[in-house]
Amino acid sequence: MKAKILDKTGKEKGTIDMPVNFSQVIRRDILQKVFESLKEKQPMGSMIGAGAGYSASGILRHRRHVWKTTYGKGISRVPRKIMSRHGDSFNWVGATVSSARGGRKAHPPKAEENQYRKINKKEMKIAMDSAFAGTIDEKSIEVKYGNKVSHLPLVFDSSVLQLKTKEMLELLRRLFGENYEKIIKIKSIRSGKGKLRGRKYKSNTGLLFVLGSDEKMNRKGISVVNVKELELSDLSPNGTPGRFAAYTEKAIKEIGERWKW
User: Mapping DSSP to helix (H, G, I), strand (E, B) and coil, where does residue 134 land?
Assistant: First the structure.
């Protein structure tokens, strides 16, 4: 598979052979499976000892003729805590157990649970190839964004790194046309109560620009990532193929060497 190499003005400069990673069959099921396993989850669980902070366990005995017995009272053997007493008559309520008010949960999530999920090498290979292929697959991008797109894949030479931000955005506007609004990262304030719950702002993913290991660029409005730091979540932010992406000529060559399975 060959791709056109564009210069900083958007004109064709030559062609390049794309690595086999970009021409593999897209497996959406395996891509979603691997994405879910690699997604970092925040450990959550109940506090150790939650719901068991009462002196209720072990105070009751179901025997005759002993102090604090429940024998003959017509009550269950649930652990109880004493609220008040009159002689040998007690006013007690159930505690500690999951069926009692304020008691512990029956089977709570545990913060010490191992969140790591093992992924087979072949599945990881198929997932990465599917993510790479999704960035140049016009059908996947059309399904995801709703607009048709052509001129894929987008491969630039190193001269594009010399452009200023304004010139870079003008180049992308000419290349993407009606899709330009979708490739620019826009940060906005969320509507609704989410603003009160630690997620005031929301943003789209925008365009991913992949650079070679020795190339540098910082542009407002697009995501820039180095080949060495490229991950599955960059190519497929939500586990589905079809993200707008552009590559430099050096990045394409390094991808073929780095992900040569």
Answer: helix
